[in-house]
Amino acid sequence: MRVRIGITDTSKVVELDVDDVEEFQSELERAVADGGLAWFSDTKGRTVGIPISGLAFVEIETSEGGHAVGFAPAV
User: Fold this and answer.
1) pLDDT in tens, 9-20
2) What is the pLDDT of residues 32-65, one digit of tens each?
3) Distances (CA, A) of 58 to 11, 66
């Protein structure tokens, strides 16, 4: 499944292909709860660290072709 992560104050969007969406969501929720920095590998094989405070949105493309919008931290 394709995941897009938007970053505040920039037009940057990190795109990921994930095998286990539930595991990805759990890891992201832990990162949000802990604050700080979340690490992801993007579709180009680069490792990207995103400050949780800079998380604008998380979009998960479901297998049905629609989009399910995730969450962003309270500002």
Assistant:
1) 888 888 888 878
2) 998 888 887 766 777 878 889 889 999 998 766 5
3) 14, 14
Distance of CA 4 to the CA centre of its chain: 6
In a domain, 75, yes or no: no
Domain harbouring 41, CATH code = 2.30.30
Sign, CA dihedral 50-67-64-32, equals: positive
Number of domains observed in the structure of the chain: 1
Give the domain range for residue 25. 2-69
52 domain-assigned: yes
